[in-house]
Design a protein that fits this description.
It contains five helices and seven strands, in the order H-E-E-E-H-E-H-E-H-E-E-H. By secondary structure, it is of the alpha/beta class. It has a single domain, classed as Glutaredoxin. Strands 5-4-3-6-7 form a five-stranded mixed β-sheet. A two-stranded antiparallel sheet has the order 1-2. It is globular, with a radius of gyration of 19 Å.
Length: 162
């Protein structure tokens, strides 16, 4: 009897550490204060109040071509912090993405951990935009397709939050 209890305890213990609790997906009202990730050069950045008014979260497709960079001051001028999720890329595509990101002249954060990436809500083929208060609290979450839809959404939201 004691042996079966010991075996059950060990099984439950290993099951508990094998399946870490999944963190909740970000939603309006959540704080991004304390979120940290490395930038494209490997420097760990911890998000603080006022660091950005918009988080632009992107999970590039494994087959995606390199996109032209916007004006280097565009993100900073509009208080946008790009965050790129590369956690699902294969080893080779991961290395290619790192090389491309390192060449960017603006700061972007890199998420290479599926549990962290899983906190960001996503829609297939769209960017996720987390709009933040000056205190770093998520006020709104939107999704936009690349190109015109994204530009228009950013223009309308950054114009009203300035």
């Amino acid at each position: 009897m004691q042996r079966s209890l010991l075996i059950c305890t060990v099984v439950v213990f290993f099951a508990a550490i094998s399946f870490p609790a999944r963190a909740d997906v970000y939603k309006a009202g959540d704080s991004l204060i304390g979120f940290s990730a490395p930038d494209q050069h490997g420097t760990v950045v911890t998000f603080g109040a006022g660091d950005a008014r918009v988080i632009l979260f992107d999970t590039p497709a494994a087959t995606g071509a390199s996109q032209p960079s916007p004006d280097p001051d565009r993100f900073a001028k509009n208080h946008v912090l790009p965050v790129v999720n590369i956690s699902d890329l294969s080893f080779l595509k991961h290395k290619i993405a790192q090389t491309r990101m390192a060449a960017k002249t603006y700061r972007l954060l890199v998420v290479d951990n599926q549990s962290i990436a899983g906190r960001f809500p996503v829609q297939n083929g769209k960017f996720t935009l987390l709009f933040l208060s000056e205190q770093g609290i998520i006020t709104n979450i939107s999704f936009a397709a690349p190109g015109k839809e994204l530009r228009e959404l950013l223009a309308s939201k950054t114009a009203t939050s300035s």
